[in-house]
Amino acid sequence: MSKALHNAEGRYPEVENFTYALIIAAIKLRSYFQAHTIKNLTDKPLKQVLAKPDTSDRLIKWSVKLGEYDVKFEVRQAIKSQVLAYFVGDNTPTECMEEDPSENERELWKLSVDGSSCITGSGAGLVLMSPSGWMLEYTLRFGFKATNNKAEWEALIAGLTIAKHLEVQKIEASSDSQLVVGLASGEYEAREDSMTKYLSYFLSLKSAFEVLRVLKIPRAENARAYQLSKLATAEELGKNQIVLVYYLDRPTISEVDVMDIDLPQEPNWMTPFINWLRNGILPEDPVEARKLVYRANRFQLRDVIPYKRSFSFPWLRFLTPLEADYALREVHEGICGNHTGGRTLSHKLLRQRYYWPTLHQDAIDFIRKCDKCQRDANISRRPSQPLTSITAP
Q1: In sequence order, which residues have a C-beta less than 8 Å from that of residue 297 and are 6 or more positions away?
Q2: Cα distance between residue 139 and residue 227, in whole Å
Q3: Measured distance CA(111)–CA(115) in Å, rounded
Q4: Do the Cβ atoms of 123 and 248 come closer than 8 Å?
Q5: Pick from 17, 141, 173, 386: most CB atoms within 10 A?
Q6: Measured between alpha carbons, how far is 306 from 322 in angstroms, rounded to an integer?
Q7: d(CA 152, CA 391)
């Protein structure tokens, strides 16, 4: 319940303000004031002020109005001590408020993996289950020959990679391979070169999780993953089976010949923001530095790539000038391009989650330079100057 004070009401003394608040409450809650005894807890001497005959006419008028109600004034005690007492009483831990030891178990994701190797081929199956019961089933088909142990490792690494992409923090993986579980838990020592590579790859994935446990379970408790691994080596899937199939052309630990080419990038508009967000380097000019810090609050680096944050839209990825030119050409005249206008082109790029400061103007300039758009565009027949009628003599 509230009321705004207008004109002279805003100039009332403090005691009159409290009395006026009581009058407003009595008017708006008239039925309650008439039916019950009202206790007014206050630290102001309202009772003494209303009882004095030499007070202002306004207070005498309010005293008469309050006389028809049973209003009692009581001294309000200290609020801070009472609030502290309520806080201690409400937040004192009891037996029912103690942390449930199984709370961490409820947050665990469950991963079941199994590998298969036979004459017809090699494959693996994995089942990933969320704490709420949501389930993902994958079948991995290998395009290479793999032993049972290698297939088990590929299944475990693939499951952990999927969980990493889903931003899972706590996961429990189970397998019926004693060798894989022993190597992952540190009980066994890797002697073969391939097992050493698989173990090092597993340890690199392990750092992405807060909790990662690998357990050995019997084959009977891993039936679904075993069925998926056998399904991977089948010629075709059965009917009414919804399974995600993934083809793995080469082993995860296989080395690919890559030539590192370090092309120096010219400084662009993103360079100051990247220097500040990554290394904390600011421009020497204090004015420019202050502007940079203010604008950088909307940006964030994710995997060394700057993004623009937003509350109601997805994060937009920043593009360098070369990337921006390629994106404009691909969306405008690529496979799915239809030579749209500049405004539509810029909106399409935003829907694809790309951004740079001059996106809209660059799209308009790109349309003006497009040869096909200029040749096949509709020609406006309107004159450059408004026509003026001339009356013949």
Answers
A1: none
A2: 9
A3: 13
A4: no
A5: 173
A6: 15
A7: 94
22 CB-near residues (< 8 Å, 6+ apart): 40, 46, 62, 66, 71
CA separation for the pair 131, 171 (Å, rounded) = 10
- pLDDT, tens only, 361-393: 999 999 888 888 888 777 777 777 888 888 776
**How does DSSP classify residue 302?**
E
Tokens 């399904």 -> residue: 231
Q: Is the pTM of this model over 0.90?
A: no
Widest Cα–Cα separation across the chain: 111
DSSP E strands in the chain: the ranges are 38-42, 71-75, 109-118, 121-129, 135-142, 170-175, 211-216, 244-248, 299-302, 305-308, 316-318, 354-355
Instruction: Name residue, tokens 């609030």.
Output: 83
Note the Cα 189 to chain centre separation in Å: 40
CA distance 380 to 354: 33
Helix (H, G, I), strand (E, B) or coil at 318: strand
Gap between the Cα atoms of 309 and 315, Å rounded:
5
Topology (CATH level 3) of domain 271-376: Endonuclease III; domain 1 (1.10.340)
Amino acid, res. 15 = V
CATH domain 104-248 topology: Nucleotidyltransferase; domain 5 (3.30.420)
Alpha carbons within 13 angstroms on the beta-carbon side of residue 179 total: 17
Domain assignments of the chain as residue spans, ordered by start: 7-75, 104-248, 271-376
Q: What tens digit of pLDDT does each residue of 251-305 get?
A: 888 765 445 544 455 677 778 878 888 888 888 888 888 888 888 878 878 777 8
**Tokens linked to 20:** 């006026």
